[in-house]
Fold this sequence. Notes:
Layout: E1 14-22, E2 25-34, E3 41-42, H1 44-50, H2 60-69
Antiparallel strand pairs: 1-2, 2-3
Amino acid sequence: KFTPRSQDDYATVGVACALAMEGNCCRSASLVLGGVAPTPIRVRAAEAILAGQPLTVPAVPPGKACRRRG
C-alpha cells in the first residue's frame, strides 16, 4: 500500500494473538504483526517461547526479548 504522508501521520501497528490454554498454561500461541512489512508477519520465535509456559508476569519478558531478535 502506498499513500502520501502528511505532517500528522503516525505509524500504525496491529498485533493479533490467539492462545490455546490448559488452565494457566499456554498450550500453543499464534502471534502476528501487521503494519510492519508489506504483508503480516507471524512471530514464530515468540510463539515457541510462550508455548508450554504458564502465563505469568515472568513469562512476558522472554517474548519481549524475542521480538528484538527477530
